[in-house]
């Protein structure tokens, strides 16, 4: 596509966005004040959310867009000069309601436009001209699109597996005394213990997982408690009036202000608490002027007056471990670039992987982690006596990426595994088999394997479509576990299934990539969007 045309369309759209922001400042921020504006929209988010759940005929039909819209509005407020807040009683909610809703819809449009045109810089899309006012973003290759779908499928399946585990805990817990005594705490503990797999003593930036759990425990307790109150009110409105009106919703729907003095803290000290608040709060501005901040990964809203608030329902699809590791990795990376000494237990991630593999291969006599070959180590290898098969793994713990750009950036370690490490494994092991296997399994090991397999093994996503998988495959732990279970732990048959992409070759039966069309200030933008069809299960 002619770059001049895409630049022309994007420039026109961004000029319209600037115009909307200026009008928003005049109509909303200048009238209500900076903090009040954010509070009003937090309430509006919950009104739309609960109306979607309990009422019919509401014009917001996709709740996933609500969070992105709030993120956009917070950035609008934060990038303007601070305006003192009016007294709430002085705000004419009837007068403001239509304008608030109108800008909410326009913010959805702005969010879609911004994400579409900024994604052009990720170098994974071609931009195709449909006509002078329409463009379509298409993946640069079939493999890029294929593995975006597959990664989305694997992540969705993992999230749903955790959700089922959480719901089972909730169902069983309702009969326990612990639940009856404090259902909100029980729910909060259940979701944390389901979502976080790292051990309590694992630390990053001198903060342990145990402290992180305590931090989120107190927040989730408040979220569940407030959500219950809001649900009761929403149901009563749906029954009597059909839906929650804005004026009544603003008075009765609650959001949560975090008052840390009231928290019963045992593990967190003031320094760690303040660091976690800074890391997981969002105000629409980059941190340290360079660290990208996102409301998706940092769901605590920081107001200009120093207060911290949460929108309860935004926490219920917050992927705790995934996003905690993402945020910590960004801050650790920033400090490392500044040549600062950084405390992190990242090296323990390999130990955690090894422990999981030891459990998975518990019944196998011959296994080894860390076999020295040449200038490197084979992370993990196992010999199956029944099928006379050796399988080797190069383990890669990936902090799960959120966007297509992040997935591409995470490819570097996988590319190294596929192009350097696994070929080294194969060359060394198959040219010096007897010596190396005796070194791995003991001097009494005399078997002569017939089959050898080599895999890059990740914790969840398996890299983008730009990787060359023609010789070696990238698999994740759940795929490996599934293959072993399905073959009654026959390593030859399991490895063959994984080598032939048995569990992902029919990915398009469970997920599809559709083209969504959005109107962006007079221009039409078409871009790929995932739609999970259901039915994919690795448990």
Automatic annotation (TrEMBL):
This is Uncharacterized protein.
């Amino acid at each position: 596509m002619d770059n001049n045309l895409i630049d022309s369309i994007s420039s026109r759209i961004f000029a319209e966005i600037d115009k909307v922001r200026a009008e928003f400042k005049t109509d909303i921020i200048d009238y209500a004040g900076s903090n009040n504006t954010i509070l009003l929209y937090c309430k509006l988010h919950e009104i739309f959310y609960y109306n979607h759940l309990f009422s019919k005929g509401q014009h917001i039909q996709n709740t996933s867009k609500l969070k992105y819209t709030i993120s956009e509005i917070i950035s609008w407020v934060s990038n303007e000069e601070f305006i003192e807040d009016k007294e709430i009683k002085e705000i004419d909610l009837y007068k403001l309601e239509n304008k608030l809703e109108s800008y909410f819809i326009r913010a959805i449009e702005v969010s879609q436009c911004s994400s579409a045109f900024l994604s052009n810089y990720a170098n994974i899309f071609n931009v195709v001209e449909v006509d002078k006012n329409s463009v379509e973003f298409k993946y640069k290759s079939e493999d890029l699109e294929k593995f975006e779908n597959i990664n989305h499928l694997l992540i969705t399946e993992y999230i749903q597996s955790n959700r089922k585990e959480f719901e089972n805990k909730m169902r069983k817990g309702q009969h326990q005394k612990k639940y009856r005594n404090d259902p909100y705490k029980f729910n909060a503990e259940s979701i944390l213990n389901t979502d976080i797999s790292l051990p309590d003593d694992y630390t990053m930036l001198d903060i342990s997982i145990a402290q992180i759990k305590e931090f989120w425990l107190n927040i989730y307790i408040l979220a569940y408690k407030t959500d219950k109150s809001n649900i009761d009110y929403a149901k009563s409105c749906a029954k009597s009036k059909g839906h929650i009106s804005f004026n009544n919703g603003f008075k009765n729907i609650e959001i949560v202000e975090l008052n840390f003095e009231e928290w019963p803290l045992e593990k967190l000290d003031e320094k760690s608490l303040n660091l976690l608040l800074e890391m997981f709060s969002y105000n629409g501005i980059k941190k340290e002027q360079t660290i990208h901040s996102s409301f998706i990964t940092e769901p605590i809203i920081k107001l200009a007056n120093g207060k911290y608030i949460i929108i309860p329902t935004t926490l219920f699809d917050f992927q705790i471990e995934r996003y905690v590791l993402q945020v910590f990795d960004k801050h650790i990376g920033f400090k490392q670039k500044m040549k600062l000494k950084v405390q992190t237990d990242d090296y323990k991630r390999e130990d955690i992987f090894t422990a999981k593999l030891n459990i998975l291969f518990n019944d196998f006599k011959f296994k080894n982690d860390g076999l020295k070959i040449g200038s490197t180590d084979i992370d993990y290898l196992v010999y199956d006596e029944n099928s006379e098969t050796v399988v080797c793994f190069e383990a890669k713990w990936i902090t799960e990426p959120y966007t297509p750009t992040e997935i591409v950036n995470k490819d570097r370690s996988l590319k190294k595994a596929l192009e350097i490490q696994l070929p080294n494994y194969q060359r060394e092991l198959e040219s010096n088999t007897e010596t190396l296997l005796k070194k791995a399994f003991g001097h009494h090991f005399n078997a002569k394997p017939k089959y050898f397999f080599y895999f890059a093994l990740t914790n969840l996503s398996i890299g983008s479509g730009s990787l060359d998988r023609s010789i070696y495959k990238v698999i994740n732990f759940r795929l490996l576990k599934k293959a072993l279970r399905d073959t009654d732990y026959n390593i030859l048959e399991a490895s063959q299934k994984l080598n032939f992409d048995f569990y992902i070759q029919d990915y398009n039966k469970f997920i599809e990539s559709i083209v969504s069309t959005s109107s962006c200030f007079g221009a039409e933008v078409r871009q790929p969007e995932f739609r999970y069809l259901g039915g994919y299960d690795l448990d």
